[in-house]
Amino acid sequence: MRPEEITQCDAVFFAVPTGTPMELVRSFLSQKTKVIDLGADFRLKTWLIESVFTRKSICPEIIQDAVYGIPELHRDDIRQTDVVANPGCFASAGIPGMAPLVKAGLVEPDHIIIDGLSGTTGAEIDTPSHHPEIANNIVPYNVVNHRHTYEMEQKLGLLTTVYISPQHMCQLQEESWQSAIVFQKDRLTGENC
What we know:
alpha/beta, 4-stranded mixed sheet, 2 domains, Dihydrodipicolinate Reductase, domain 2
C-alpha cells in the first residue's frame, strides 16, 4: 500500500528506509494519526541527527516534540504524543538498565560500557552475515560511532561517555544479549543503595 492510499486511522507504524518517515510524517499528523517510527528518523534531536547521519532534518519541530519510546521512562508521554521514536536495539536494552544508576549518581558517567551481542539480522549491511563466514565467531562491527551510542548518551544526559562494543554471532540469529559495565562512584553501603 502506498502512503497516499492510506486513509485516516488511529496509528501508523513506519518500517521504511531512513529519511522516508520525515518525508511522510506531516501528512499523517494532519489526519490526526499517531506515528510510531521503528527506524532512526526521530530518535535523536535535530542537531545530533545532522551530525551523526550527516543529513539535514526536514522536520525539526516534529523531531523536537517526538517522544523516545522507552515506556519505563516515558510511559505517560508515549500515551499523549503524536510521534513515538522507537529506540534502537542496543539502546532499548541499555537505557532501562543504566538510567536508574545514572539518575541516582551511583556510577561514573565517563565509564559506561555496553557490550552487546546481536544476531546477524541486527548487524549493519556491510557486516559479514553469511552463516559459514561467522559460524562459531563473534564479529565486532561499527565499534566507533555506533548510532545507538548517541541515543544512549542523549537519554542518559551524557555526552561522549557511553561506549558500545557491538558484535554479532550467528548462533543468536534474531536475538540480542547485552552486558553493561559500569564503575561505581562511591562504595555502596546500606545507606546509599
